[in-house]
Design a protein that fits this description.
single chain, 4 helices, alpha/beta, Transcription Regulator spoIIAA, 133 residues, five-stranded mixed sheet, globular
Length: 133
């Protein structure tokens, strides 16, 4: 799987450069994305765990790969980290919607909106942590 990584202040932006996400790529998806939870992804020494996955280049995704994205997103939220998918092509969004997976994903139209979601979730986590004290 080919990706481009860009580390921002509050999140890592990962752009998938491949045009398809086939079922055979599910293990690669997990191997590429889950290390960000432990801050041991390649080239990262930044304690930021939040991830924005940019899928603007992806024109087709298989169900198994989409289900793996849902699983990865759940792992991020279980670990108090955000995982937002953005810039879906129309046919990918329609496929995810038809398969009932879109409603399980945190999806935004643009990277800017994904950044807003990450910021809001960070504030929400801080407020919840303050209430626990």
């Amino acid at each position: 799987m080919h990706v481009k990584t860009d580390t921002k202040e509050k999140f890592h932006a990962i752009t998938v450069l491949d045009t398809t996400l086939p079922a055979t790529m599910t293990d690669e998806l997990a191997e590429c994305l889950l290390p960000y939870l432990q801050n041991d992804a390649p080239g990262t020494d930044n304690p930021v765990k939040n991830l924005v996955l940019i899928l603007k280049n992806v024109s087709a995704i298989e169900t198994v790969a989409a289900e793996k994205l849902v699983y990865i997103q759940q792992k991020f939220y279980e670990n108090n980290a955000s995982f937002v998918i953005c810039e879906l092509q129309k046919q990918v969004e329609e496929f995810l919607d038809d398969s009932g997976l879109l409603e399980l994903m945190n999806v935004t139209p643009t990277e800017s909106e994904a950044w807003d979601i990450v910021q809001m979730e960070e504030i929400e986590r801080e407020l919840l942590n303050d209430e626990d004290l």
